[in-house]
Amino acid sequence: MSSISLLSGGPMQVASSKIAKVAIVTGASSGIGLEAVRRLVASGYRVVANSRNITSANTLDGTGDLKRVDGDIGIQETAQRVVDTALQSFGRVDLLVNNAGVFIPKPFTEYTAEDFQRAVGTNLSGFFYVSQLAVAQMRLQRSGHVVNISTSFVSQPVGALSASLANLTKGGLESVTRSLAIEFADEGIRFNTIAPGVVNTPMHPVEAHEFLKQLSPLKRLAEVGEVADLLLYLESATFLNGEVVHLDGGAHAGKW
Ligand SMILES: NC(=O)c1ccc[n+]([C@@H]2O[C@H](COP(=O)([O-])OP(=O)(O)OC[C@H]3O[C@@H](n4cnc5c(N)ncnc54)[C@H](OP(=O)(O)O)[C@@H]3O)[C@@H](O)[C@H]2O)c1
After folding, report:
1. 164 CB under 6 A from ligand 1?
2. pLDDT (tens digit, 9 = 90+) per residue, 38-80?
3. I want to staple 249 with a disulfide (CB 3.0 to 4.6 A). Which of 160, 166, 216, 230 is the partner?
């Protein structure tokens, strides 16, 4: 909206011509990120999609309103190329979906230094650099939305599936969602997080599905389309800010 003065009377709000929104999605070659890109494009967004091997994965074509950027999002130079591509191709950044992530289930004392570096590198560094750059652009626009993908295990660890590196790293995303929501509220930038239970993606082998279904009171996995539904809802729900929304069939709510 922009404000104009009338010859008589005060300022009036008029709708700007409709500009397609621009989204960045990390970890977009597969699973939740892939479906998010498809749904955003279908909803009229122009999208920059990133993963380490997004071109060779060939699950998305990089034409028209969709650009692909290969690279590890935990490296600052990749984050810079992702945001530069959005600005050079589409001129703005309205939505950043920090989806790239790794899940390494293990007993705590068995984690290696390499496991730790992988989890921190993707789940935290992969949030940090691209968010700094995207938020800097959103500040110029005085609008924007950052959506992080966490896990329901942060609120409800499960005895049968130890994964404390997920808690350590994704827990940070949930906390920073709240702090950044406060820090940037005056500048019109929102921060929210989706915390799914187990989702039916290539992250989990089919043989594990029967066990994993038992980790939700609804006794099934979430589908990627349900995560995309929530993402689009968060985009439309403009008074939601600093929220962590659980999408786990009720697992975070208690025992069953
Ligand atoms: N599936 C679940 O049950 C579940 C539950 C809760 C939360 N989550 C979270 O949801 C997110 C997506 O998971 P998913 O199940 O959709 O996984 P997925 O199907 O394994 O996809 C992971 C995506 O991340 C990319 N990726 C991995 N490391 C990356 C890096 N360093 N830089 C850039 N891209 C990277 C992968 O592509 P490349 O190999 O090409 O890089 C791929 O596109 C993750 O953050 C995960 O923790 C998943």
Report:
1. no
2. 999 999 999 999 999 999 999 999 889 999 999 999 999 999 9
3. 216
Q: Is 148 in the pocket of ligand 1 (CB under 6 A)?
A: no
Does the beta carbon of 101 sit less than 6 angstroms from any atom of ligand 1? yes
| Fold exhibited by the domain 20-253 | Rossmann fold (3.40.50)
pLDDT bin (cut points 50, 70, 90) of residue 17 is low
Distance of CA 182 from the midpoint of ligand 1 (Å)? 28
Q: Where are the domains of the chain?
A: 20-253
